[in-house]
TrEMBL record, chain A:
Signal sequence, renumbered to the chain: none
Keyword Hydrolase assigned: no
Residue ranges of domain ABC transmembrane type-1 in the record: 103-308
Family: Belongs to the binding-protein-dependent transport system permease family.
Source taxonomy: Bacteria, Bacillati, Actinomycetota, Actinomycetes, Micromonosporales
Region: Disordered, residue numbers: 1-33
UniProt-recorded name of the protein: Sugar ABC transporter permease
Organism: Plantactinospora mayteni
Transmembrane segments: 43-68, 98-128, 140-161, 181-210, 230-248, 260-278, 285-309
Top-level taxonomic group: Bacteria
Compartments reported by the entry: Cell membrane; Membrane
Entry keyword set: Membrane, Transmembrane, Transmembrane helix, Transport
Mode of membrane association: Multi-pass membrane protein
InterPro entries, sorted: MetI-like, MetI-like_sf, Sugar_ABC_transporter
UniProtKB/TrEMBL annotation, chain B:
Coiled-coil features, chain-numbered ranges: none
Sequence similarity: Belongs to the bacterial solute-binding protein 1 family.
Segments of skewed composition (Polar residues): 393-402
Record key words, sorted: Signal, Transport
Feature: compositional bias, Basic and acidic residues: 405-417
Species, as recorded: Plantactinospora mayteni
Chain intervals for the UniProt region annotation (Disordered): 393-428
Pfam hit, one: SBP_bac_1
SUPFAM superfamilies the UniProt entry points to: Periplasmic binding protein-like II
Residues making up the signal peptide according to the UniProt record: none
Protein name (Swiss-Prot/TrEMBL): Sugar ABC transporter substrate-binding protein
Length: 326, 428
């Protein structure tokens, strides 16, 4: 926070001369602020204090509380046996087959769905961007799957794939596709992709709008084919938007829960890590083990975000272009 | 919510109004939770699963209460898992809106251990125990205390085609042999029962263990045992699954599927709850005439089976604001008269022995003597607060039954069960 403000003040001070002094880090050599600036900054803090407090109450407290729970043997069924066990729960979970199976399933779902959604979403975005006739209609209808509540959509998929009630089940011969692991996972991924491709397309369309028409015209003047214009001009310009879309979807996909909950309830080793945490917390009443899983999921999500922001240089949402490092 | 937030701080009066509205919106649900008593008569909230005619029982008890309390029947979801999840979530949050809880027999110990149930003591306890069958009563106890009153019970019976099998088999080995002979003669031969990966498979295994004289956990519920009887039960289950006498979908069959399989005429034997009989009489009266019932087959020749009991108990929530009235209301809902009514109208077997002798029971329950015989010498599922977890790991390990390797499967189940008892188990 403070460095950002400093940069801002530095730019301010540079004024019309255009000579920008290197922004200084840390508290040493901080330029003295005028009375007005200080009042302004105090007002800034006061204005964001309520939001910060709410964030602390609804985010920081639960996270810290679950970390604290994860360090205890705490089973609601045995309230008298509550005790501090250090990292024992982490050992239990990380040496457990169910956990790693669920982790594998989650990773598989994340990678496959995000990859497919990116390709389909890009196609849809281009269509929505280029449509001339009935643009509103095209955009609205493309967004319908995203507008349907996931659980409702998941129930439709479930009935569609259940022999006897569904029209899709008989398509692939006899048998119930949702009761076998491979086909069940495929259906879960299909439901996820069907549902969130429009969201991906929406994010990518925002990126497409950034591509200057002149640039594309210039490229075609130079003899670039449509494919070359797409890969050489559009994609590089869109890269920040693509990375943000990927980050959002990866974080979302890693926490997949509702589709699995409705479609298979985790039978035949189709549980995701979120399903596993739910089963241990809510059904098993084991707050210790369940919180350990929640903390591990939190860490995994944090690592994904870190990789995207630091390694791929995704601009954190809300930050300026500087974070983007195009 | 969106409306109040949109008005900015630039218009102070409207902003204040918006803030007040927001606060009211947030508090309104809390206020709604607080109310619920009308006209000074305490409302007793009964949370119970779907039972078609229970409202009549409730109305009758309300009339008898003479204004002392009024029971309101709140319907829990149909699936057992969802019922339990709703109850435990609200109890963990100390919800005072629930008074009488309809508990599956396997949850009573868990809820009691968690400190969510009030103990039945003194005259109330004596009334709940009077005339009640020992097996169902045992499911309502935890550490020697009574935490619920048994409302109804249930046991599975052996249903067989009397036109194909003159004498019902006494043991599993005998039943498998009979089925193989029938198959050799080209007649309907299959043994239909529940083998999917769910509670029903655990019920089957538990019955086999008890019939073989084995134990799953020790008596005080602290240690996983899985003794010789438990291993013998695994052998029987594996032999059954691999003898070629089951349906092809055995490892995916639950109660209603088993009923339909047998009704279709493919089976010579069916092991299932009593509800299959009235259903069969309605769907295929000709077939029903050929079907008879007998005690569930045992494991060792000469020693009769011990069959796992199901059913529901009524417990009083510790967070109830009207515990006295709740105890009285629960006692009324499960008294002999109402148990008889529910047995005849909803098909749920009573827990009070004398009810079976009532004349009206003969028509609704032609198989009542066999049921009573099994109920007097029953098996209960492991009575441990960790039962849900134990059941989950057992059904996962037992499925599919054809790939059981008795000694090794027993070792795996022993370890997983011990982990569950020590709160170290991870549920799949």
């Amino acid at each position: 926070m403070s460095t950002e403000t400093e940069t801002a003040t530095a730019v301010d001070r540079a004024g019309p001369t255009g000579a920008v002094p290197a922004p200084r880090r840390g508290r040493v050599g901080r330029p003295t602020l005028s009375e007005g600036k200080r009042a302004e900054r105090r007002l800034g803090w006061l204005l964001c204090a309520p939001a910060a407090l709410v964030m602390l109450a609804v985010t920081a407290y639960p996270i810290l509380y679950s970390v604290w729970l994860s360090l205890q043997r705490f089973d609601l069924k045995f309230p008298d046996e509550r005790e501090f066990v250090g990292l024992a729960n982490y050992v239990t979970v990380l040496t457990n087959d169910y956990w790693w199976t669920a982790f594998g399933v989650t990773m598989l779902i994340t990678v496959v769905t995000v990859a497919v959604e990116l390709v389909l979403g890009m196609g849809l975005a281009v269509v929505m961007h280029r449509t001339i006739v009935g643009r509103g209609l095209v955009r609205t209808s493309a967004l319908i799957p995203y507008g349907i509540v996931t659980v409702v959509a998941a129930f439709s998929w479930r009935y569609a794939w259940t022999p006897g009630t569904g029209y899709l089940a008989t398509l692939f011969g006899e048998g119930a596709p949702l009761t076998e692991r491979a086909s069940a996972l495929a259906i879960i991924m299909l439901a996820e992709i069907w549902k969130t491709t429009p969201f991906m397309a929406l994010l990518l369309m925002a990126g497409l709008a950034l591509v200057p028409e002149d640039l594309l015209k210039a490229a075609s003047m130079d003899g670039a084919t449509a494919w070359q214009r797409f890969t050489r001009v559009m994609l590089p310009v869109m890269k920040p938007a693509i990375l943000v879309a990927l980050l959002f979807r990866t974080l979302d996909a890693f926490r997949v829960f509702d589709n699995i909950f409705v479609l298979t309830a985790g039978a035949n080793e189709t549980s995701s890590v979120s399903m596993l945490a739910y089963n241990n917390l809510i059904r098993g009443l084991n707050l210790g083990i369940g919180s350990t899983m929640s903390v591990l999921i939190f860490l995994a999500v944090a690592i994904i975000a870190f990789v995207f922001v630091k390694l791929f240089g995704t601009a954190a949402p809300g930050s300026t272009d500087e974070g983007g490092r195009r | 919510m969106a409306e109040p937030e949109r008005s900015g701080p630039g218009r102070p009066p409207r902003f204040r109004l918006a803030a007040a509205l927001t606060v009211l919106t947030l508090l309104a649900p809390l206020a709604a939770c607080g109310s619920g008593d009308d006209g000074g008569i305490p409302t007793i909230n009964l949370y119970y699963t779907t039972e078609q005619n229970i409202q009549k029982v409730v109305d009758d008890c309300n009339t008898k209460a003479g204004g002392r309390y009024r029971i309101a029947y709140r319907v829990l979801p149909r699936a057992a898992d969802e019922q339990r999840v709703q109850l435990v979530r609200r109890l963990a949050a100390e919800d005072s809106g629930m008074d009488i809880l309809g508990l599956d027999v396997t949850w009573t110990q868990e809820f009691a251990s968690a400190g969510w149930l009030l103990e039945w003591t003194g005259e109330r306890r004596a009334e709940a125990e009077r005339g009640t069958l020992a097996g169902p009563l045992e499911t309502a106890r935890y550490e020697g205390k009574l935490y619920a009153a048994p409302k109804n019970t249930n046991v599975q019976l052996l249903w067989y085609r009397a036109d194909l099998v003159p004498q019902p088999p006494g043991t599993w080995d005998e039943m498998i042999r009979m089925a193989q002979e029938l198959r050799g003669r080209g007649q309907p031969y299959r043994v239909v029962t529940m083998g999917a990966q769910y509670e029903g498979l655990v019920v089957l295994y538990n019955t086999l263990v008890a019939s073989a004289g084995g134990k799953i956990i020790n008596d005080d519920g602290s240690r996983a045992v899985f003794d010789d009887g438990a291993v013998r039960a695994l052998e029987v289950l594996r032999n059954f699954a691999t003898a070629g006498v089951t349906t092809s979908s055995f490892s995916n069959t639950i109660e209603d599927q088993a009923r339909l399989d047998f009704q279709s005429g493919a089976g010579a034997f069916q092991l299932n709850w009593p509800f299959v009989y009235p259903a069969m009489q309605e769907a295929d009266p000709e077939l029903a005439k050929k079907v008879k019932w007998a005690r569930y087959p045992g494991v060792h020749p000469g020693s009769p089976s011990k069959v796992t009991i199901g059913g529901f108990n009524l417990g009083i929530s510790r967070y109830s604001r009207h515990p006295d009235e709740s105890f009285d209301a629960a006692a009324c809902l499960r008294d002999a008269e109402h148990q008889k009514f529910s047995a005849i109208n909803d098909g749920v077997p009573p827990t009070i022995e004398s009810v079976y002798a009532e004349p009206e029971m003969a028509e609704a329950y032609p198989m009542r003597d066999t049921i009573l015989e099994e109920l007097k010498d029953p098996a209960t599922r492991p009575r441990s607060p960790a039962y849900q977890n134990i059941s989950t790991v057992l059904s996962a390990t037992l499925s599919p039954p054809s790939s059981i390797d008795p000694e090794r499967t027993a070792d795996r189940m022993r370890k997983a069960t011990q982990d569950a008892l020590d709160s170290k188990g991870v549920l799949p």
